[in-house]
């Protein structure tokens, strides 16, 4: 079966225990736009918040499920161990370092371990995040900063960068990336983890570049990560359209890889499966997008529900703590 290459990172979904503080951090401090306030379609009693560029273009979405009782994350292996966010150039990182100092955000020094300038930081729940410079990016283009962002457009976040995976059995995940998903190995670099130098292997898909990479590291002497608030739930990769996604469903079936099959998410169509180390991967279509049920000027202001949940709106809203996102 002939499949089009995956186009890059589609979105990353993480866990928060506090939707209000999460909204304030990612919109007012990081300057992202809340493009959709909806619910987890598998558990409608919890919010699902989508932060992105001005209109939620594919490859720019960082999303959060609110689980108010979520416990602490105990970092470990077989996990999505960091999410990176793209900024236009190296100079932008100086702006962000100053902003993090101003707002007392936990952060490290600017580094160039990967060959790109990066700035690692943590949100209020310990979510592991990395700003990465697009200064020399030749691959998938970034998005566009929302004009009403509190962060100047010339230094704002323009999308998702490489996703970082830490696994206990490297070869198994490499096999999935290359032989199942069609990534190619681009190279490697060394980075310090708890004082020890570890090799990080870089894989890319589609046009490649900052928005289409997975960075993979093997650590064999740690327990599996215990996820909670501040951890990442899954990463999604971009598929052109529904026709192509249905080919992927058939392809995984032919390979005897257990998956969710085709899943309707209304704003995009999806397919989920776990790679051999247990990390959850999603394949998601580029469209139809977030303006399906809200106009551009008012994205994220009200609770949006797919049509198949509208008859449950009253009962769904009754279970959610009000979250004002019109500011």
Characterize the structure shown:
This protein has 327 residues and is an alpha+beta fold. The protein has a single domain, classed as 2,3-Dihydroxybiphenyl 1,2-Dioxygenase, domain 1, CATH 3.10.180.10. 17% of the residues lie in helices and 36% in strands. The protein has five helices and 16 strands. The strands form two sheets. An eight-stranded mixed beta sheet has the order 2-3-4-1-13-16-15-14. The chain is globular.
Please write out the topology:
Blueprint: E1 9-16, H1 19-29, E2 33-40, E3 43-52, E4 61-66, E5 79-87, H2 90-102, E6 107-111, E7 118-122, E8 128-133, E9 159-167, H3 170-180, E10 184-193, E11 196-204, E12 213-218, E13 232-239, H4 242-254, E14 263-264, E15 268-274, E16 280-288, H5 313-319
Parallel strand pairs: 1-4, 5-8, 9-12, 13-16
Antiparallel strand pairs: 1-13, 2-3, 3-4, 5-9, 6-7, 7-8, 10-11, 11-12, 14-15, 15-16
Short descriptors:
eight-stranded mixed β-sheet; alpha+beta; 17% helix; 2,3-Dihydroxybiphenyl 1,2-Dioxygenase, domain 1; 327 residues
Q: Main sheet, how many strands, which sense, barrel?
A: 8 strands, mixed
Number of helices: 5
Q: Please provide the ordered H/E string of secondary-structure elements.
A: EHEEEEHEEEEHEEEEHEEEH
How widely separated are the two ends?
49 Å
CATH architectural arrangement? Roll
Q: Would you tell me the overall average pLDDT?
A: 97
Uncertain runs = none
- Helix coverage percent of residues? 10-25%
Quick overview of this protein structure:
By secondary structure, the protein is of the alpha+beta class. The protein is built from 5 helices and 16 strands.
